[in-house]
Amino acid sequence: MPPPPVRPRWRILAASSLRPQARPAHKYSPGEAPWHPQSSSEYLSPERGSVKTHPLLPLKNVRVIELGAAIASPYQTSMYADMGAEVIKMETEKRPDNIRYTNPWVGEKRDLDASYYFNKLNRNKLGLLLDLRKEEAKGIFKQIVSVTDIVVENFAAGTMDSLGLGYNELRKYRPDLIMISLSGFGATGPDRSFVAYGPVLEGVGGIMNLNGWKDGPPEICPFSYTDYVSALYASQLVMSALYRRRITGQGLHADISEAQVATNAIPATFYDGAVNGRMWSRNGSRTLHHAIHEFFPCKGNDDWIAISIRDEAEWQAFCKATGDAEWTRRPEFATEASRLQRQDELERLVGQWTATITRDEAFALLQRHGVSAGPMYSIKEVTEGKHTIARKTYLPDPHPITKDRRIAASTIRLAGAPREIFRPAPLWGQHNPYVSLELLGFAPAEAERLKASGVFS
User: Fold this and answer.
1) pLDDT number for residue 162
2) Statement: residue 9 has pLDDT above 60
3) Residues 6+ apart with CB under 8 A from 283
4) Which of 2, 231, 339, 343 could form a disulfide with 75 if both were Cys (CB 3.0 to 4.6 A apart)?
5) Separation of alpha carbons 65 and 145, rounded Å
6) Is the pTM of this model over 0.90?
7) Could you confirm whether domain 24-267+424-452 is CATH 3.40.50.10540?
């Protein structure tokens, strides 16, 4: 058997009115879809009937099926749900989303429906149990696809094809279907079958090699960085795909590699090495171009201030903020180049100055002089801060179990639309009746039979 194709570094693009050009390969790999002309009003699936959403929400007539777990796909589809899309999250009894088992829980009691983390990632969605290992369930899934705009999955590469539910099969039922496949290494290349979570992807993507102190070990991000960034890449692609479908009537299949997304998140490093032969390495918070780019201690208990000075004007503003302290006017600190050569000494002197005032005093003083500076806030300070409250970053959770506790809401603010969580995260299999009876039109007896036979489970 020949080896699998390797994902290209460069791709030849052709268009009817343009000569082919060589360009960097995309992080996602669009598949082909047939020309499917329709009037614009027909591109979106039928009106959704379960929960009223505000008319200004831009995706209120879009339906999404999510076959995902953990963070990457659920976070991606949460953005669609926040914008009004009807998102149907699929799970099975044997394999619920593992984030349901992630704390914190209400009262620290482990419960499938009581995880704050799950509720945050899956607000405004519907929940469906459907066991795709069963042939009858596959047929039902295809029926759902026929009235769906977008399918999102983050199974291991090749899983949907092995189930007989790959894009080429599904588009028989929805010719203009948009499908997003998101996996650790993508669906092509020699690493495509490898298992990967956040730390692995940070490592192979090059991020971990840069994260940490000089001469120290590599550091792992304290959150799933690649999952969140990959979700943002995917959401941008989906918005473009919906627009493209409106213009052309064509669907799209995209294959996104989280490892490739990680590499694209550090482009300056890649190009500096490729073009100049200069390999970057761990160096704490420092950069190659800014002499002051660091956290500094302040008066108080574990209080710190971040300061970043990018050019000569900001350096002069910083000097004035210190009251033109003697050390800021030394000849050896007169230029950015000379300051970079004496970075250790400069950081020591800045730290001595910040240690004489409180964090909040330093923040106010530096900002007043136009210096980019910000305090290190605790999680409690972030959630209870005046700006956080004013922006309604956290809203009461209408969930029946975690009710009245606040969870992170959408970061999107639309003029004229209320900022709210209009549907709590689904209880396990909560919306099976809606899907079977309303969406698919099954008779109650048939829906009960499918549940009893383990299809809806």
Assistant:
1) 96
2) no
3) 210, 213, 214
4) 231
5) 8
6) no
7) yes
